[in-house]
UniProtKB/TrEMBL annotation:
Species for this entry: Streptomyces beijiangensis
Highest taxon, organism lineage: Bacteria
Entry keyword annotation includes Iron: yes
Segments for region (Disordered): 504-526
Record-given protein name: Ferredoxin
Requisite cofactors: FMN; [4Fe-4S] cluster
Keywords tagged on the record: 4Fe-4S, Flavoprotein, FMN, Iron, Iron-sulfur, Metal-binding
Family: Belongs to the complex I 51 kDa subunit family.
Domain NADH-ubiquinone oxidoreductase 51kDa subunit iron-sulphur binding: 325-369
SUPFAM superfamilies: 4Fe-4S ferredoxins, Nqo1 FMN-binding domain-like, Nqo1 middle domain-like, Nqo1C-terminal domain-like
């Protein structure tokens, strides 16, 4: 069984590093070393940033691939029209088990990501920056980076910056789910599709992109479009970050110029010489068979032309010794369990699709295959978010790629191979790591509590109601990422029975992080 990927796997580079510059020197580039490696960054106007993004063909690296320049212009125009300040959101929520590229950047090069975000904020006049995260390691790294730059959420600052922690789930990284979490709600899609450029965080126009996109912007702003364009393809200049796992000797994140043969990258990670198939774009992506994978190059256009997808940058080969349909069933079951449970296509359709694939593998014959195709088609375009669409894409690609195995299971007694479980999934305990502690405690005053239950609705992670309708936990440690919701629960308690207890001075957590004020852009000197 393939073990879950570590937060920060091995990092390799093909050619000259750009995003990973300095990784050969230290495990994490602090602000001082970051400036020595990359140099200072000068501010640009909004149109100059948009033009730069256009000239380097910068698209979002989180999966959707929307042109960054168009997104920035849309946010700026909406902010001007409405007369409000826009918001910048860095999406570092990698809830997919096969993706680690953003996590690597946030852990090892956090200031490169912040450079791009702050450049965009200065360019369009944003006064709020939010970084959405899912893991302890990324939260610790970004809080240290905030301290090194003097970024804070205090009132009166020209730029207020904060970190929001979301559960490590597939749907938590969806744009609308992250925006909902930033606004204090659950990290789930809201059930209606709205454009963040029009109405995002707090109803303000919001520029939301993933960590790699902002890091690429920071690199391009330093190099300029001409130098940046000397790497990679003319139509898709620069480098991309790929997470390689599955049937590989060494799971890794690789920075590679566009145009490099995919087979070379697979060889670098120790993949089988003749893979049975290669899943591209992650668990919302598409399969390539062995021949197509041999012919593909690392580029959005090349992968799409062969039926694959760049998507979130995950590449997962499987060898000839495992059953590809069995591997797909494991992922289909996980995708069904990741449903937000808010709409029929997700709540009902994805479990039905996974059950249909199971029926095919267990001898259901042509009728089971036809039922699988029908339910997969039925969920497309009908969900409250893109999770049903991505899951349906994965299943449809599985059926169309592994036709020989499909025929063996539908018409015969199966393919005769076991399912080895080479595609990574969370461990049996799931994503159960605890967040960073704040030192504060949430406490209930029993002489005042009347059992309204509002606190359990606002912070179910900390307080649950007992059989009698009263809180089951009298006091609970408050992690940093839940502090805001805990404070909201205190304010909204009708009986004023809830309070947050501060740590005593002798027990207060001590920080070794520097707090000197630093400029967001420029040299970084005090």
């Amino acid at each position: 069984m393939n073990a879950p990927l570590p937060d920060v796997p091995e990092v390799r580079v093909v050619g000259l590093p750009q995003l990973t510059s300095g990784f050969d020197l230290v495990e994490r580039l602090d602000l001082s070393l970051h400036l020595k490696v990359h140099g200072p960054l000068k501010p640009l106007t909004g149109e100059h940033v948009a033009q730069l993004a256009d000239e380097i063909s910068l698209r979002g690296r989180g999966g959707a691939g929307f042109p960054f320049g168009e997104k920035l212009r849309a946010v700026a125009k909406s902010a001007i029209r409405r007369g409000v300040r826009p918001v910048i959101v860095v999406n570092g929520s990698e809830g997919e088990p096969a993706c680690r590229k953003d996590t690597v950047l946030l852990n090892r090069a956090p200031h490169l990501v912040l450079d791009g975000a702050l450049l965009a904020a200065e360019a369009i006049g944003a006064r709020t920056l939010v970084v959405g995260l899912t893991r302890n390691s990324t939260e610790a790294s970004m809080r240290q980076a905030f301290a090194e730059r003097g970024l804070t959420d205090r009132r009166g600052r020209s730029l207020r910056a904060r970190i929001v922690r979301t559960p490590e789930r597939m749907v938590s990284g969806e744009a609308s789910a992250l925006i909902r979490a930033i606004d204090g709600g659950p990290a789930l899609p809201p059930g209606r599709r709205t454009r963040a450029a029009e109405s995002g965080v707090g109803g303000a126009p919001t520029l939301l992109s993933n960590a790699e996109t902002f890091a690429q912007l920071a690199v391009a702003a330093r190099l300029g479009p001409d130098r940046y364009g000397r790497t990679g393809l003319a139509t898709e200049p620069g480098t991309v970050l790929l997470t390689l796992s599955g049937a590989v000797a060494r799971p890794m994140v690789v920075e590679v110029p566009t145009g490099v043969p995919l087979r070379y990258v697979l060889q670098l990670a120790g993949a089988p010489p003749l893979p049975q198939g290669v899943l591209t774009g992650g668990y919302h992506g598409s399969w390539l068979d062995g021949v197509a994978a041999h012919d593909a190059t690392v580029s959005r256009a090349s992968l799409a032309a062969l039926g694959g997808a760049l998507g979130a940058g995950a590449v997962l080969p499987i060898g000839p010794e495992t059953c590809p349909l069995g591997e797909a069933l494991r992922i289909a079951n996980w995708l069904a369990a990741e449903t937000a449970g808010q709409c029929g296509p997700c709540k009902l359709g994805l479990p039905a699709a996974a059950g249909g694939l199971s029926d095919v593998l267990n001898g259901g014959g042509p009728a089971a295959l036809e039922a699988l195709r029908e339910v997969t088609q039925a969920v497309k375009g009908r969900g409250a978010c893109k999770h049903p669409d991505g899951s349906a894409r994965f299943l449809a690609s599985t059926v169309s790629t592994f036709t020989d195995d499909l025929a063996a299971h539908v018409l015969g007694g199966g393919c005769g191979r076991e399912t080895l479980g080479v595609l990574p999934l969370p461990g049996p305990e799931g994503y159960a790591e605890k967040s960073l502690p704040s030192g504060e405690k949430l406490a209930v005053d029993w002489t005042l509590c009347q059992g309204h239950g509002l606190c359990a609705d606002l912070v179910p992670e900390l307080i649950r109601l007992g059989p009698d309708g009263y809180p089951a936990l009298a006091d609970a440690s408050v992690p940093i990422h839940l502090r805001g919701r805990a404070q909201r629960a205190v304010r909204r308690c009708p009986a004023l029975a809830l309070r947050i207890e501060q740590p005593s001075a002798e027990r207060a957590p001590r920080t070794a992080l520097p707090t000197a004020e630093r400029k967001a852009l420029g040299s970084g000197r005090s």
